[in-house]
Amino acid sequence: MAEPAGEKPARIPLGSPPYHWPDWYRSVKSFEVRDTGKAVWQLADTLAPCLLLWYLMIRSVQLGYPYVLTLLLAVTAAGLLVRIFILFHDCVHSSFLSSATANTVLGYVCGTLVFTPLEDWRFIHLRHHATYANLDARGVGDITTLTVSEYVVSPWLKRVQYRLYRNPFVLFGVGPLFYFLIRQRWPSRAVSKKARRSVHVTNLLVAGVISSAAWAIGWKTYLLVQLPILWLGGAGGIWLFYVQHQFEGVYWARKEAWDPLRAAVDGSSFYRLPAVLRWFSGGIGIHFLHHLGSRIPNYNLKRCYDAIPELRAKEPLTLRASLASPRLKLWDEDRQRLIGFSALKSRSRSVTAR
Predict the structure, then answer these.
(1) CA 63, CA 70: separation in Å to the nearest integer?
(2) What is the dihedral of CA 286, 289, 295, 300, to 10 degrees?
């Protein structure tokens, strides 16, 4: 039956299992076109204000202004750091600039600014694209998620560790500085020599930038400026990544039933953000579209979404609704949904009562 005029279908049309790539998917791929002019403009409108804010923060410390003013400037600077990471992310996919070499060079530059090695992160991130929403291929480039049955049979210490890891204070509080300052200084497991080398090169570049800045403005000033930017920006980046695949109604499946089309459409969110936050995040909130076409540059995501009517049937995750996502901790294979620890307790009491 045809959809009534002016109404959206209930969901993006995928067809019946096994899922074949639908006709509208060809239109998605047509937006995997790189535009040097747009890329250069994004570099300018991101790096220029970032440098200005760095200068203003440095001067605010040197002139003895209340530190709260420095922290207020750090909020916007952190937003720009998130945007720089989005440019880095596009370079990882070789989708930002027309030249592969240019993407690599810029990727190292942006990677130094966000304390992240290009090739090592490329390895785990592309692995994430190949395995997300697959319950039998978890653990690389994603937020660690246990199933209910895995959690229940885990030793006491492992359950405690998991609860600590999934605690918002740890994940978004301690996590950003640990991840970007410490974890990223070491190569991931089972990566190539090229990826390992990128970690060492990035470490040298980061050390050079830090040493130069400390020599020019002093260690105290550098730390008072850099740490709040990195912490706030890192927390924002981790939050974005978290809600992209951890939300009510998300799709997960075992390997034999896993479908890449459903994984993209239902295993990734459409995070509807206010315009200013959408700008700072490079439009990556349209994350299901990024997984449908991973080589679509960030500056084409919104254009693609607007141009293909079928995509607009995706139910958005609102900013308010996303605040409930950290309460979802475990995948319930029986109910095919994420649940919290409180729901697990209720379920256990119900089983015991029977």
Answers:
(1) 11
(2) -60
Residue that is written with structure tokens 């400390």 in the block? 214
Please choose, from the candidates 4, 98, 83, the residue with its C-alpha nearest in 3D space to the C-alpha of residue 47: 83
How many whole angstroms separate alpha carbon 291 and alpha carbon 286? 9
**Edge-to-edge strand ranges of the sheet holding 330-332:** 146-147, 330-332, 337-339
- Residue 347 pLDDT: 64
**312: number of CA atoms within 13 Å, CB side?**
11
pTM metric for this prediction: 0.92
32-82 pLDDT, tens digit per residue, is 999 999 999 999 999 999 999 999 999 999 999 999 999 999 999 999 999
> Residue 338 is which amino acid?
L
Domain borders along the chain are 33-353
**HSE of 354 in the Cβ direction (CA atoms, 13 Å)?**
5
DSSP-assigned letter for residue 284: T
Task: Name residue, tokens 């084409």.
Answer: 300
Give the closest residue to 248 by CA, choosing from 148, 168, 322: 322
pLDDT at 17: 63
- How far apart are the C-alpha atoms of 226 and 50, rounded to whole Å? 12
Rg (CA), the chain: 22
Whole-number Å distance between alpha carbons of 336 and 147: 10
| Stretch (H or E) spanning 102 | helix 100-113
Distance between terminal CA atoms of the chain? 45
CB 55 within 8 A of CB 256: no
**Long-range contact list for 137-142, CB < 8 A, 24+ apart?**
137/255, 140/188, 142/245
Q: How far apart are CA 148 and CA 341, in angstroms?
A: 9
Q: What does the DSSP assignment read for 156-224?
A: HHHHHHHHHHTSHIIIIIIHHHIIIIIGGGSPPTT--HHHHHHHHHHHHHHHHHHHHHHHHH-HHHHHH
CA angle 191, 192, 198 (to 5 degrees): 90
CA distances from 98 to 32, 37, 101, 127 (A): 11, 10, 9, 23
